[in-house]
Amino acid sequence: MTDVCAYILMEVETGYVKDVLKALQKVKELESVCVVTGPFDLIAHVSVKSLKELGDVVTTKLQGIEGIVHTTTCVCTDCACGCSCETKK
Ligand SMILES: [Zn+2]
Q1: How far away, in angstroms, is 37 Cα from ligand 1 center?
Q2: Is the pLDDT assigned to residue 1 strictly greater than 70?
Q3: Could you tell me if residue 87 is inside a domain?
Q4: How far does the centroid of ligand 1 lie from the alpha carbon of residue 60, in Å?
Q5: For residues 33 and 25, is the Cβ–Cβ distance under 8 A?
Q6: For residue 79, what pLDDT is reported?
Q7: How far is the CA of 84 from the centre of ligand 1 (A)?
Q8: How many angstroms separate the alpha carbon of residue 55 from the centre of ligand 1?
Q9: What proportion of the chain, given as a percentage, has pLDDT over 70?
Q10: Ligand 1 centre from 31 Cα, in Å?
Q11: Is residue 47 included in any domain, yes or no?
Q12: Residues near 78 by Cβ (< 8 Å), separated by ≥ 6?
């Protein structure tokens, strides 16, 4: 059961998108990962138990992946995406 979910927008170094995508698919907290166009290269949806755990995922798991230049984390306040988080009330 998870209480916090968020979208993590990532900027990735040119040429690293495929490698980063592979690495992200091994991070179990991520519900989904998409390669996108626009100002960001990848968007992941994450479901965790607490804000602290969200911080840990971003700082230890994601920022340790080679090729990720910058992350922007948007916490969902009213999730309606069908993920396993418990924010839908
Ligand atoms: Zn969600």
Answers
A1: 21
A2: no
A3: no
A4: 21
A5: yes
A6: 85
A7: 7
A8: 16
A9: 94
A10: 8
A11: yes
A12: 87, 88
Q: Domain of 36?
A: 4-75
| Across 42-60, average pLDDT | 95
Query: For the segment 27-50, what is each residue's pLDDT rounded down to a tens digit?
Result: 999 999 999 999 999 999 999 999
Q: How far is the CA of 16 from the centre of ligand 1 (A)?
A: 26
* E-state strands within the chain: 4-12, 30-35, 42-48, 68-75
Which residues of 36-87 form beta strands (DSSP E)?
42-48, 68-75
Is 85 a member of any domain? no
What's the predicted TM-score (pTM) here?
0.90
How far, in Å, from the CA of 41 to the mean position of ligand 1? 20
Cα–ligand 1 centroid distance for 43 (angstroms): 13
Task: Read off the CATH number of the domain in which 32 is found.
Answer: 3.30.70.920
Nearest CA-CA partner of 76 in 8, 24, 1? 8
Q: What pLDDT is attached to residue 63?
A: 87
Work out the percent of the chain whose per-residue pLDDT is above 90: 81
